[in-house]
Design a protein that fits this description.
Structural class: mainly alpha
Radius of gyration: 19 Å
Strand content: under 5%
Helix content: 55-70%
Number of helices: 9
Distance between the termini: 68 Å
Order of helices and strands: HHHHHHHHH
Number of strands: 0
Length: 166
């Protein structure tokens, strides 16, 4: 009877860890050197972005840093998407590289989900709506600037567009 309970307990633990574990694909084997390689890497980029949104902000997380580097390399080289990192939107995050990376991940996530949306402001608004709740949940809010708090409050109150683009 004890063995049965032990087996059920171990099986349940295994299932819980395998279903909720954030797994990053092996990025070292993916070369971004041709137009086709960037297109082929889109599914991996989706997994990388999901990984970044599922893991907490940690400077010492090697996998997270690797995912961030891969994302930036892909964003810089893909011919299929245009990413605008304008000061108007990025100034809220420029004091914290993790915040800026998550904004870039949100911009990518929005662009992959809405490939026909090419307008810069719409992309930025979509990215902000993705990144702000994540930052609120995952970051130490003591480090937030006054402007980031105002941006978050505007987003929470449905005034994001008016706040960013008066």
């Amino acid at each position: 009877m004890r063995k049965t309970f032990l087996f059920i307990f171990l099986f349940s633990c295994f299932q819980a860890t395998s279903s909720f574990g954030q797994e990053l694909p092996n990025l070292k084997n993916i070369k971004l050197n041709k137009r086709a390689s960037y297109k082929h890497a889109e599914s991996t980029i989706g997994k990388v972005v999901d990984y970044l949104f599922q893991t907490p902000l940690q400077k010492k997380n090697k996998s997270r840093n690797e995912a961030g580097r891969f994302l930036v390399d892909w964003m810089n080289g893909t011919p299929d998407y245009a990413f605008y990192l304008e000061e108007k939107e990025t100034s809220f995050f420029n004091t914290n590289s993790d915040f800026l990376l998550m904004y870039m991940a949100a911009l990518t996530k929005f662009s992959l989900a809405h490939p026909t949306e090419k307008e810069q402001r719409q992309q930025a608004l979509g990215a902000m709506q993705l990144v702000l709740p994540y930052l609120y949940e995952q970051s130490d809010k003591k480090n937030w600037s006054k402007e980031l708090w105002q941006l978050y409050d505007a987003s929470k109150n449905g005034q994001l567009k008016e706040y960013l683009y008066p």
